[in-house]
Amino acid sequence: MSNKAFLLSIALCAAVGAAPVPNAVVEKAGAERITVSVATPPGAYTSSLKRNLQISGWFTLAGEGAAIKVSGTPGVSVTATGRGKTITATTAFQDDRGARMAARRFVDTMVKEFSDGGRGFATTRLAFVNRKGPDNAELYTCYPDGYDIRQITSDGCAAVGPRWAPDGETIYYTSFIHKFGNVFRINASAGQRPVPLAPFKGTATGAAIAPDGNRCAIVLSYEGNPELYVMDIASRRIKRMTNTPAAAEASPCWSPDGTRIAYVSDQSRHPQVYILDVASRRSVRFTNKGSENTNPDWNADGKLVWASKRQGQTVLMVADVAAGEGAARAVTTPGSWEHPSWAANGRHVVASRDKALFLVDTDPDADKPVQLFHNKGNWMNPALSR
Question: What is the set of domains in the chain, with CATH numbers?
Fold first, then answer.
């Protein structure tokens, strides 16, 4: 694969995709969950509450005899009682959207209180892409429960590769609005026009913001070949991290402490995941199994998830970086999986498959992946805020 072809395939997120395959079926009984009964009146609040309880990884809905009982009046207060605890939250809201947000907050509180300190992800946001045509892909956001979908860009060109800044409001993405790839940022709530990150010469793709919010890992071709750089966002000063004249780099992501970057390079003639030490600018190859390994993402617990092509189909793999690829395990059955992104709890990922988005529980005894929504479209390239 040529450098140009590799760069475009990554920047456009393999938008054409593999041929659809039958839905994956994970033959597992599922991890043991805490039973919850919900006795709040029907409506937007209750629907969101039940949905978020089910996808949290900690709870399952039940009737009489449930370990935790949820009751109350949405819009006033709701209480969860069980396992020696009682938690109550006021739930004032003005409309259905506000009702769903109040339910998400309550579920995150339930996760924290009833799972001995676990972290919920219901109130985080998901950025993703809908490919509407060969050169038209727009950004959208929603919540992990699949509700409250909102279109963010309307540029009529390819907008791909969204990544959240640590503030949970700013999205960095690659746009081809000027016919060549450049990185833009946009506030996901304010509805403002996208702003270029910097006036780079050549193509700029794959921006990923460091945990400190001050640096950006980015792939630039202004010196002729797509290489990995680190940019100080305030000063716009850049440092070149790789030197691979016969290859191209893509898809950087930061380690939780901001000292390393995982990225993809085709210097072995096939895309593989490498890990760079930022201080020394030295890289080591992380993946060796599978014909192609792409789309890495690093969680706060030091685990890496990536898409690995094996025997013509793709699975999502997870490994503790310190333990190496030898400790990796597949968390999906084979299919056309792409672009996994960790949730804030460090356990779930959202990924794309067959023009749809799925929530994948990486727990070894988890249930099968859950499709987030069923709206018509070519949905891909998800990225969760944390």
Answer: 3-26+124-384 (2.120.10.30), 34-114 (3.90.950.20)
